Amino acid sequence: MSEDRGPAAGLSDGEHLSVLGYEDTFNRSMSLWANFALGFTYLSPLVGVYSLFAVALSIGGPPSIWWIVIVGAGQLLVSFVFGEVVSQYPIHGGIYPWARRLWGRRYAWMAAWVYIWAMIVTITSVAEFGSGFAASLFGIDHTNDSTLWLTLGFLVIALAINFTGTKWLARVARIGLAAELIGVIGLGLYLLIFQRKQEFSVFFDTMGVEGDGSYAAAFMGAALAGLFLFYGFEACGDVAEEVENPARRIPKAMMLTILVGGVSALFSFGGYVLAAPDLASIVNGEDADPIPGILEATLGAAGAKIFLVIAITAFLSCVLSLQAAASRLLFSFARDGMIPGHRWLARVSPKSKVPTNALIVACTVPALIAVLIWANNDLLVPITAFAVLGIYVAFQMVVLASLRQRMKGWRPAGPFSLGSWGFLVNVLALAYGIFAMVLLSLPGSTGDFFTDYVVLIGLGVVVVTGLAYLFIARPDRKSDAPSGDAITVADEIRLRTGATSAVDVR
After folding, report:
1. Which spans are transmembrane here (predicted)?
2. 47/29 Cα distance (integer angstroms)
3. What are phi and psi of 190, to 5 degrees?
């Protein structure tokens, strides 16, 4: 891995953006730390671990913790590929502009269409899961109605903060980062050191979850414990035009998000397992929501209340980051004329310098989905499952497009470069992504067709509707923004900077 002082190193942020065909219209007030905080609070190990702790243990037992390591390593490879891409293309929108510039307009349309819906659904899911914490803190009965109102409260508060501009987004993201670190690393260490009820060898003990069959099948079934956790780092690139020196800082922020997020998740997951007073009941599926009981037993009533405040802060920050990332993706899509209502969606507030209309959509659509969940509670799990697979599909579309360009002779020209390792890392990232998508697509075993295949059904609906709009409305013909120009742009950057190779390996 290297940082290239040659290509793009001599270009200012505005000049780099000009090479890519855009004007510098946003406030670049986001630092490396704030950009990392945005990605980390979107990834949110606290949300991921709390949401799937009981499910993972009941399917794969304590060894399911190793999925955090496996998926973290795989997603780190993906972040390396994304780092090279965003370093050459530090523009708003992330997945969409990367796919467009690496492949073409129609390909980017499908990648963005899947990614937008997956991200919007994720916003709803996180707000829904956060409502339970809010209800517990304020002593509200956790009913269908209260869940809806608390979910809408998360969405509206996040929207109000996002409306104020990038500085407040960065501030709240940093507060959320602190809450996450306290809630996962701090609490995890406390549980590991002072409240340990199990031996460390428990992480190699299946505790009989395999029954009469092979443990391999049970372990594969618990993969969601890691797969649900490790996305969100790409959000660092969604706000590229609001980051100072993004070509250098965003690749670092993405990798930090995965590394710190992975360590945090390990401390949190491991701490809960080792501190569980009745681990067998969790593994046997008798305790479907064990974390509140673990906290009550180890922290006491007052300590559990403090943790709830920390958790709510983390959930709110996660919703905030998701809304910001989704709005920038919508803005980027609209700026190129690729989506209905693109002129309205592409408007940027002259005062706050944020895409306010896109933010309204990133709040309103999740709110409508929350109403659907209120009408049918059974929709929450399949909606969340679709979001995970949709994100991974969009990721791998970029990874595949990057590999295709490398095979055509592309040498990334941003300050961050993998050098001669780029091709191998790209191949490994694609192989990992295919493996992850296969795991996410495996049908369930309940015997009910819809329940067992709901993830694939959801993805199929999104893909078919996207293709239908693409070939009927032909949005790709309405946009003349650059596309498929990775090699040309790399050559232009090298020409302007007088650079020809990557140096200064660090």
Report:
1. 36-59, 65-86, 107-127, 147-165, 172-193, 213-233, 253-275, 306-333, 354-374, 380-400, 421-441, 453-472
2. 27
3. -60, -45
Cα–Cα dist 367/21, whole Å: 35
- 8 A C-beta contact, residue 54 and residue 290: yes
Per-residue model confidence as pLDDT tens digits over 317-368: 888 888 988 888 888 778 877 777 878 988 888 888 888 899 999 999 999 9
Q: Say yes or no to pLDDT of 306 above 90.
A: no
Decide if pLDDT at 250 tops 90.
yes
Pairwise pLDDT comparison (503 vs 243), residue with the higher score: 243
Q: What 3-state class would DSSP assign to 3?
A: strand
CA distance 132 to 148: 11
Q: Quick check: 431 pLDDT over 90?
A: yes
How many Cβ atoms are within 10 Å of 211's Cβ, its own excluded? 10
Q: Which residue has the tokens 């790709």?
A: 476
Question: What are 252's two structure tokens?
Answer: 């670092």
- The whole-model pTM stands at 0.85
In order of start, what are the domains of the chain with their CATH numbers?
2-497 (1.20.1740.10)
Report which secondary-structure segment, H or E, holds 417: strand 416-417
- Measured between alpha carbons, how far is 82 from 63 in angstroms, rounded to an integer? 30
Q: Dig out the tokens for 325 from the structure.
A: 């990332």
β-partners of residue 3 are 416
246: number of Cβ within 10 Å:
29
CB 247 within 8 A of CB 416: yes
Strand-pair partners of 416: 3
3-class SS at 23? Answer: coil
Pairing of strands 2-3, 416-417: antiparallel
Q: First-to-last CA distance in the chain?
A: 7
Helix (H, G, I), strand (E, B) or coil at 22: coil
Chain-centroid distance, C-alpha 295: 27
A 10 A CB-CB count for 337 gives 16
What does the alpha-carbon distance between residue 127 and residue 284 come to, in Å, rounded to a whole number?
A: 28
